[in-house]
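Methods: holo model generation. Sequences were used as deposited, without trimming of termini or removal of tags, and paired with ligand SMILES retrieved from the corresponding compound records. Each pair was processed once, and we did not select among multiple samples. The sequence and magnesium ion SMILES for this entry were:
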Amino acid sequence: MNPDIQTWIDRLRSGDPRALARAISTVENRAPGWSDLLKALFPHTGKARVIGLTGAPGSGKSTLVDQLAKHYRKANQTVGIIAVDPTSPYTGGAILGDRIRMQDHYSDPGIYIRSMATRGALGGLARATADAATVLDASGRDLIMIETVGVGQDEVDIVRLADVTIVILVPGMGDDVQTIKAGIMEIADVFVINKSDREGAERVEREIRAMQSLATRNDHWTPPIVKTVASEGVGTAELAEAIAGYEAYLKKENLVLKKNVENWQERLVEMLRDAMLEKARAHMDGGSLERYAAEIAEHKRDPYSLVEEIVGGAERDAF
Ligand SMILES: Nc1nc2c(ncn2[C@@H]2O[C@H](COP(=O)(O)OP(=O)(O)OP(=O)(O)O)[C@@H](O)[C@H]2O)c(=O)[nH]1
Ligand SMILES: [Mg+2]
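and the model returned the structure below.
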């Protein structure tokens, strides 16, 4: 291995935040050396607990992540936070209170916060987030939290890769269980009803229970429902307990490996798709993709032969 990479990794693993930031940027941007870096880091991963949190915009995800981070810090755990959200307070463009909170964190090297943009390179966000989590894991963080706004498939793909997925609901705001994307309800290992200081928390709870009575999960786990008031720190300890409860269940039922295998199967398909697409693209610049599309639309050529041709070309390149 390149000795520079080794020095870099040594620094990263000793907890140097600058080496960590540089490593995450490198994998996020697919900058030169990204794959050598990830290959070298992989053997050091698999130790961190990865917790995904998703919920509607403004449901209190960042506030909750904040409270959990404090909770785990008290137990001397080191924390890495990835906020996949352009409006996140962690990006610095937020209200004063959030900014003060953010500084709070920065004074504690035991908490590392990183935000990722939801818009950008074609797809790839789930991959970039997963790779950033890999880097944090290799750097020795005990716990990694990933916050995403639960609005689309992208977000589902991101948090699904966590060891424990938390779905955050709030009373009122038309946030009724029925209106939440079905795909998001299904990924919850733990439900949080945040802003329980508001009216309607019981109703949300009843709706979750009703939904749960209709479907059983493959792992036969019934996701607990935790009521929180994140802005006051109410329910944080109970949430941490619920998270630990699911982890203990997975262990007891011997499901840890199975879940990991399932996650890797999904991630591998995604990685292969990305890699193949990149190869195919190498055979045609963006302009020719447009030209091909025009030719197909005008029925000057058929897409089936074209795909065979491009894939064949990529294959020949490999040898
Ligand atoms: N009343 C009440 N307000 C809360 C609670 N938790 C958070 N808030 C407030 O709700 C607002 C949004 O909180 P955030 O933590 O930024 O929510 P978020 O889900 O991260 O928001 P986005 O990242 O923008 O989607 C803030 O003003 C919080 O102070 C709660 O339990 N009760
Ligand atoms: Mg947020």
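Residues 256-282 form the longest helix (27 residues).
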